[in-house]
Design the sequence.
């Protein structure tokens, strides 16, 4: 019989289970066990493991300390009914609650009822103004009934509230209209609302709930609701204000964390709340569209916090400046904004407002999202963060020269792309010293690790919401300022590292005055490649440089690079390409014999696609042709091709079985370093699979499960997968020396949909 902590962590991290449907029985002296939703339990908190006496799911007893029952692996109770969108590790599962007349507020753990297709969804966000501060000046008792009446009158499908406190939560739970039609996104008896003041209510069926702490008393909480035309994730947050010490820096960090976490949420997404930022940074940093701007135009700066008009806002304002702090942000894609309006912007006859903030009501509906849905390069705010990181690292490594490389140097980086840097340092450039200086210059950096197994050493770290890859090239006696131009004098490894800078410059030179057209094309192509799982060299795909070379060739050879059919030209050209011919920016291209050869633009000239197998080449050709057909069809019908272009591929129809690659933290080494070694070995694994007859194997380049000490990747084994015994033989050889790494065969149904 397993222990209670083993059962808890199994439910918490195994993607086959839905934590929101589990209940823990907690022993109480002289009373019946207290029933606690599993997501509300805090490991290492006030309740020790030995006080858990039973575990239930869907009303079925799965584990019982007294009788020795342990049925979690043999029962269907608690199993996920559909892939979880609010997945770990970013989101911790929460249990939604709804009112039952005979039982009160109870966990809403049964399947959501089907709803008919809806014309649209109305979402309302409102900072309600708690009375933790200046309670004698803000008329809380008089305002609360006004707020409840305004919320009921809004007729919103999803309501997102900030600065909710216990008294307001109680009033909401007692309101007949809430009890009759709304589900709460959290356990009303838990600590979540009290800690961060966030609350979501939905009258649409709730599939799942989750939350993530962004810092002390700051969080994001989310629901996945059923709109009838598909699931929709609605999340709300409340970022730090300028009342906090260094509020702008805190907001930047919180936006970076949000951007990182929400990238893992598939499908339609709306993020709402009080961002405490009157500029464009929230939408830009997150890669989302501002609904108010979309409806009313970029020139409309209607405030949601106006101290000059609203006396409640004047009480707390530091600057007296009117600002649009409250936002409804929409992910580019299937949904479009159809309306946006303020709530609570008019006072009662005696001058009392509902809150210091006005509410923002937004209506969204399926339809053509318009030009804003087309993928674009990283925004100015993200570029500014990248420049600041480069400046700090350059200052720390003052005797060397730090070069921007990769897609950011070419100007075609997608939002959230890695920041690739090359540091040319004189002498031997000891990596430990470089790490110490960089860490001192970037005190907020996380996941700092030395990369020593690569051809050229370097650092990997995360700061400012960006992953940074810093390659360190030792130039010896050579002046670091001349290292790129004279890279051939630095040895092969350093020359290849430094050529990342010259390659990017060569691409920009090749497109010349057509650079804006190149940026538009390259970013769209890279977004498509990412969505279809074709974009990662360690996983057998094409690296960013290869896509940039293909885009640059297309732009350079186009008769009119500003023509709207340039993307059609790209896919048509490369879908019909004979991949026996190398691709280069130069006129005369020769290269090694390989399934796909895309050559680097500058010396030392080499292929950057040596990892591509024949099976992946065939997949690439199929995907290029599919995209070409979609674009031509859209041109004929006037439709929007992007929802289909950016949809994930039907992997479960392509692969009869899977190899699941699991990487766990090992006591003998660092988790991030192990992940790096695994990525380096993956091409060899794909080659071994191809040799067994699985020519159409495809390694999905993003993990389907991640945690602080665990990552799991899915490798589709194609239509004729190797058997378990043969895969075990491959795994024995390939995993040698990789402690904490395992490779196991899995049936199709055990791997979730991948994005």
Sequence:
């Amino acid at each position: 019989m397993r222990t209670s902590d083993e059962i808890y962590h199994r439910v918490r991290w195994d993607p086959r289970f839905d934590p929101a449907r589990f209940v823990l029985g907690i022993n109480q002296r002289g009373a019946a066990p207290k029933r606690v939703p599993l997501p509300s339990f805090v490991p290492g908190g006030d309740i020790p493991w030995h006080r858990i006496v039973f575990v239930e799911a869907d009303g079925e007893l799965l584990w019982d300390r007294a009788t020795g029952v342990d049925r979690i692996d043999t029962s269907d109770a608690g199993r996920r009914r559909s892939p979880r969108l609010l997945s770990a590790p970013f989101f911790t599962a929460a249990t939604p609650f709804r009112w039952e007349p005979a039982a009160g507020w109870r966990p809403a753990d049964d399947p959501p009822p089907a709803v008919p297709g809806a014309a649209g969804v109305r979402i309302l966000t409102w900072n309600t103004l708690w009375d933790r501060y200046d309670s004698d000046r803000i008329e809380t008792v008089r305002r609360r009934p006004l707020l409840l009446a305004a919320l009921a009158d809004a007729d919103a499908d999803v309501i997102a509230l900030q600065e909710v406190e216990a008294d307001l939560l109680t009033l909401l739970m007692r309101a007949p209209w809430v009890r009759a039609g709304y589900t709460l996104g959290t356990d009303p008896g838990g600590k979540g609302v009290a800690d961060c003041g966030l609350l979501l209510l939905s009258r649409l069926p709730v599939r799942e709930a989750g939350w993530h702490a962004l810092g002390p008393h700051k969080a994001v909480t989310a629901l996945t609701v059923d709109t009838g035309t598909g699931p929709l994730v609605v999340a709300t947050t409340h970022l730090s204000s300028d009342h906090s010490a260094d509020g702008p820096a805190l907001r930047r960090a919180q936006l970076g964390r949000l951007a990182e976490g929400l990238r893992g949420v598939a499908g339609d997404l709306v993020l709402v709340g009080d961002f405490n930022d009157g500029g464009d940074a929230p939408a830009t940093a997150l890669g989302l569209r501002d609904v108010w701007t979309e409806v009313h135009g970029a020139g409309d700066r209607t405030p949601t916090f106006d101290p000059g008009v609203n006396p409640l806002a004047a009480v707390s304002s530091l600057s007296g400046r009117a600002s649009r702090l409250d936002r409804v942000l929409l992910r580019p894609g299937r949904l479009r904004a159809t309306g946006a309006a303020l709530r609570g912007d008019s006072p009662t006859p005696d001058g009392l407002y509902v809150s210091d903030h006005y509410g923002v009501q937004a209506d969204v509906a399926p339809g053509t999202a318009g030009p804003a849905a087309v993928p674009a390069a990283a925004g100015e705010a993200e570029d500014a963060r990248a420049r600041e990181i480069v400046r700090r690292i350059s200052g720390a490594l003052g005797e060397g020269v730090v070069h921007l490389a990769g897609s950011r140097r070419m100007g075609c980086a997608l939002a959230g792309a890695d920041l690739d840097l090359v540091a040319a340092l004189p002498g031997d450039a000891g990596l430990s010293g470089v790490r110490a200086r960089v860490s001192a210059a970037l005190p907020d950096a996380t996941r700092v690790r030395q990369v020593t197994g690569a051809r050229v050493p370097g650092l990997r770290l995360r700061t400012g919401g960006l992953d940074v890859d810093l390659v360190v090239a030792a130039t010896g006696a050579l002046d670091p300022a001349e290292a790129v131009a004279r890279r051939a004098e630095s040895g092969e490894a350093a020359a290849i590292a430094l050529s990342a800078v010259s390659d990017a410059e060569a691409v920009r030179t090749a497109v010349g005055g057509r650079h804006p057209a190149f940026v538009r094309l390259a970013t769209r192509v890279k977004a498509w490649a990412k969505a279809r799982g074709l974009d990662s060299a360690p996983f057998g795909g094409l690296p960013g440089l290869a896509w940039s070379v293909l885009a640059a060739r297309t732009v350079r050879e186009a008769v009119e690079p500003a023509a709207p059919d340039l993307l059609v030209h790209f896919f048509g050209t490369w879908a019909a390409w004979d991949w026996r011919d190398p691709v280069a920016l130069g006129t005369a291209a020769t290269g090694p014999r390989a399934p796909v050869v895309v050559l680097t633009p500058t010396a030392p000239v080499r292929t950057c696609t040596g990892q591509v197998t024949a099976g992946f080449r065939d997949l690439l050709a199929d995907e290029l042709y599919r995209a070409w057909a979609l674009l031509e069809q859209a041109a004929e019908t006037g439709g929007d091709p992007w929802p289909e272009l950016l949809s994930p591929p039907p992997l479960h129809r392509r692969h009869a079985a899977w190899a699941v690659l699991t990487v766990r933290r090992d006591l003998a080494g660092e988790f991030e370093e192990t992940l790096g070694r695994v990525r380096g070995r993956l091409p060899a694994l794909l080659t071994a699979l191809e040799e067994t007859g699985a020519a159409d194997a495809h390694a999905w380049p993003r993990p389907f499960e991640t945690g602080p000490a665990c990552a799991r990747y899915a490798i589709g084994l194609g239509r004729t997968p190797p058997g378990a015994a043969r895969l075990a033989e491959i795994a024995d050889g390939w995993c040698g020396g990789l402690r904490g790494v395992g490779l196991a065969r899995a049936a199709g149904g055990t791997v979730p949909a991948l994005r």
Residues 380-483 form a domain with the Beta Polymerase; domain 2 fold (CATH 3.30.460.10). Confidence is low (pLDDT under 50) at residues 368-372. The chain has five domains: 4-70, 121-373, 380-483, 510-643, 651-750.
